[in-house]
Every structure is written in C-alpha cells, then in structure tokens.
C-alpha cells in the first residue's frame, strides 16, 4: 500500500471511529462513513470489504492507539511505585474534561463484543495486550520476593483490570469520577496486600 493509500485508509478509520463513538455502532452505515470521509464508494470498498471489516478495523485501530499512549508507563510495571504511577495515569485519563469514565476500548466493547466471533476475539486480544505488562511486572516482583510466592499473578492482574473497567463504567453511568478512584483504591489494596505478604515491600 502506498503512503497515500495508508493515509486515505487512516482517514476513513478516523472518521468511522468518530461516528461510532458519537452515534453508536447500530446507527452508523457505510453511506454515513463515505459521506463524512469525503471518499467514493469504490475507495471505501478498496480498503474494507464490507461494514463488518470496517468495524473490526476500527476496533484494532482503537486498541493500537490506546495501548501506544500507555506504552511509556506500562513498559516496566515491576514495583508498587510503578503500578501506582500507571493507576494514577488511568485515573487521570478517566476523568478528562471531555468525558468521565470514557475508555475507548471499553466503550467499543460494550457495543461490539457480541457482534461476531472475530470482533470478540479482537477485544480479547486487546485486553490481553493491555494486561500483559502488569502480569510480567508482577512476576518480576514475585521472583524478587516482593510479592508472596503463592499469589496467582494472573488472577491479581485480572482483578486489577476488572477494577479499572468497572470503575470507568460506574464513573460514566453516574457521572462521578469518584467511582473510578474508589475502584482503583480497591485494586491498590489487593496489590499491596500481596506485596506485604512478600519478604520485601516495594
């Protein structure tokens, strides 16, 4: 694909994403995307085979954007200090002026997780990629003795991710940023309990 082709495809994805987040997936048609993007029908079908392909591409694009924005923070979640910084970042992004509890991946997943098995798998991959740095960091802490040896780090990471998504959802529904902070406080407590059971508390 040429540079111009990549730019056109990226533009269509950006427009489609904006329409989906503004109007919801059920209300977005290919005609809407074509008009808003200012492209011809042949161009649209050149880059995307059908509406489902476009939707799945929006999912993957959103996932890449969200995870790339966190990459510098999640590169080494191998201490409580690093995890605290990450959770502080989650809290800050979850209460921006332009929205409370707005997680791009979560908002899409709420609408699309049952769309089809391929799309559901895309979300499964997304949360796996998001969670993996935390699992790796917790394993490093466990190997150093900073985390209790009998702690199941995958379950601990799952609990943390559930707290993040649950907190974001409640914050959005109740329009109350305190819901996210409360959920993250619970996640921090579980993480610190596991760390306190280790030989060294970081």
Summarize the structure.
With 202 residues, the chain is mainly alpha-helical. It is 76% helix and 0% strand.
Structural description of this entry:
Helix 4 (51-74) packs parallel to helix 7 (117-144), helix 7 (117-144) crosses helix 8 and helix 8 runs antiparallel to helix 9 (178-196). The protein is elongated and about 60 Å long. It is 76% helix and 0% strand. The protein has helices at 3-23, 30-37, 41-47, 51-74, 80-94, 104-112, 117-144, 153-174, 178-196.
The low-confidence parts are: none
Largest sheet: none
Question: H/E series, N to C?
Answer: HHHHHHHHH
Mean pLDDT over the full residue set: 85
The total tally of domains equals 2
The CATH topology annotation of the largest domain reads as: Tetracycline Repressor, domain 2
Please, what is the oligomeric state? Answer: single chain
The CATH first-level class of the largest domain comes to: Mainly Alpha
Q: What's the CATH superfamily of the largest domain, by name?
A: Tetracycline Repressor, domain 2
Q: Assign the CATH architecture of the largest domain.
A: Orthogonal Bundle
Strand elements, count: 0
The proportion of strand residues reads under 5%
Helix content: over 70%
Rg to the nearest angstrom? 19 Å
Structural class: mainly alpha
The shape, in one word, is: elongated
User: Helix count?
Assistant: 9
Task: Pick out its properties.
202 residues, mainly alpha, Arc Repressor Mutant, subunit A, Tetracycline Repressor, domain 2, 0% strand
């Amino acid at each position: 694909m040429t540079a111009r082709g990549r730019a056109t495809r990226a533009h269509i994805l950006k427009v489609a994403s904006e329409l989906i987040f503004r109007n919801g997936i059920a209300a977005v048609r290919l005609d809407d995307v074509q008009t808003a993007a200012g492209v011809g029908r042949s161009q649209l079908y050149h880059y995307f085979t059908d509406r489902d392909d476009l939707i799945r591409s929006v999912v993957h694009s959103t996932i890449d954007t969200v995870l790339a924005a966190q990459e510098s923070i999640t590169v080494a979640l191998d201490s409580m200090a690093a995890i605290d910084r990450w959770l502080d970042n989650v809290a800050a992004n979850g209460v921006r002026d332009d929205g409370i509890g707005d997680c791009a991946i979560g908002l899409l997943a709420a609408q699309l997780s049952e769309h089809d098995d391929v799309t559901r798998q895309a979300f499964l991959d997304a949360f796996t990629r998001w969670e993996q740095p935390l699992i790796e960091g917790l394993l490093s802490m466990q190997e150093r003795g900073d985390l209790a040896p009998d702690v199941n780090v995958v379950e601990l990471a799952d609990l943390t991710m559930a707290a993040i998504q649950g907190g974001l959802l409640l914050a959005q529904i109740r329009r109350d940023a305190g819901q996210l902070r409360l959920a993250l406080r619970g996640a921090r407590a579980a993480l610190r309990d596991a760390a306190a059971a280790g030989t060294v508390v970081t």
